[in-house]
Amino acid sequence: MACIEGNSIKIKVSAPGKLILFGEHSVVYGRTALAASINRRTSLELCENVENRITITMNKIDLNLSLNFSDIVQLVKENVPLMENNSDFSIKLIDHDSFTRLTLERISRVVDVSNLTDQQKSSLLVFVFLLHLIFHNNSDLLQPFNIVINSDLSLGAGTGSSASYCVCVSAALLHYRTLRTSCEFDKTNFTHEDYKIINEYAYAGERILHGKPSGLDNTICVNGSFVEMNRIGPKEFNVIENPPLINLILINSGVPRNTSQLVQKVAALKNRNPSAVDNILNAMDDVSKTASDLLKKIGASQKSCTSFEEDFQRLEELIVMNQGLLYSLGVSHRCLDDICMICNQQGLNAKLTGAGGGGFAFTVLPPNFDQGKLNTCLESLKSHGYHCSHVVLGGDGVCIDS
Ligand SMILES: Nc1ncnc2c1ncn2[C@@H]1O[C@H](COP(=O)(O)OP(=O)(O)OP(=O)(O)O)[C@@H](O)[C@H]1O
Ligand SMILES: C[C@@](O)(CCO)CC(=O)[O-]
């Protein structure tokens, strides 16, 4: 529930990161993917102030800005370019590329961007872009405020820090606008209708950071739980009922990489070898669909306490196949291959997650897995410089914390 201190609105929202179990990259081309939220979150606190300024603190990227409030109100009132022949204002009709360019120009009028890193500039651009869109027709509702953004997620490593960031900003600004218009101060949760709107705005933010993303990352960060996505299916995504309890270890290769460059790398490979790459993508689709059926079965059998060891073995087989297919698309990395090999030496199976090229891999622990072998595997990964951590899959999506 939002709180009011004096006459000032204060809200806090948070959104989880995500882990793609199957189908990264192929999902960009309309194939099936399976992902889950993880128990690491980004949070955003917004608190109105009386100082006539908007202050922005993004701790993960060392960004601290204090902007003149009237400059921002002026900026938000400026035109938003729409696609041809449309006069209605709606997020679906915005000419995204022109609006991104214009927003960048407008930002440089109110902030000295020459001192900012590219990363700070991109995150600020997303924030101002979303603020502009959300308050464009309601600029009189804006009041000076401070925002502070924190995150438990590693940036640029495959666990959806960018989507989690875009979801938080969209959710906080949309919720703030609602409070300024309808004073729903007793609202404690977002509705499914809110989820849909937050997702649309978050996707627009992700487009700035990622070019042409599939929308899987923001969808999972909004909805939480386990999500199966197939963009060309009748329904874009399904939240999986009876999600399985999976013991999963995240392994950080420590190799930095850039999601949009890796997506472009696959696009270039596909351009040069359309038929071969299509066959790889189709195989990935098959693997994801089979994995999705298996995960639903594992979830159900866990509940009824029947044996699921065999299903687990099949799941591991699919992990190995998916990693092989990603390797053939050129998005693995020497360190990711090394991680898979170290896990395999102890009877575990691993694959990269997210865009690849570095970042995280994961391995799942089969039921009753030998503790000694696990310890040996973790020691070996550590001695090669790979950091391991346990994550819980499938928690809450975006929510109002206070
Ligand atoms: N907490 C945050 N505060 C501000 N900006 C953030 C935050 N988290 C992410 N970002 C923005 O998102 C960018 C990271 O996006 P990128 O796609 O490279 O990584 P990722 O989302 O962690 O990986 P993947 O898309 O493979 O899951 C950062 O460079 C930054 O611009
Ligand atoms: C590589 C990719 O499939 C996942 C990035 O987390 C890109 C996307 O879905 O937009």
UniProtKB/TrEMBL annotation:
Entry's Gene Ontology cellular component terms: cytosol
This enzyme's EC code(s): 2.7.1.36
Domain of life assignment: Eukaryota
Keywords: ATP-binding, Cytoplasm, Kinase, Lipid biosynthesis, Lipid metabolism, Magnesium, Metal-binding, Nucleotide-binding, Steroid biosynthesis, Steroid metabolism, Sterol biosynthesis, Sterol metabolism, Transferase
Every GHMP kinase C-terminal domain range: 309-370
Signal peptide: none
Catalyzed reactions per annotation: (R)-mevalonate + ATP = (R)-5-phosphomevalonate + ADP + H(+)
GO molecular function: ATP binding; metal ion binding; mevalonate kinase activity
Family listed: Belongs to the GHMP kinase family. Mevalonate kinase subfamily.
Name this protein carries in UniProt: Mevalonate kinase
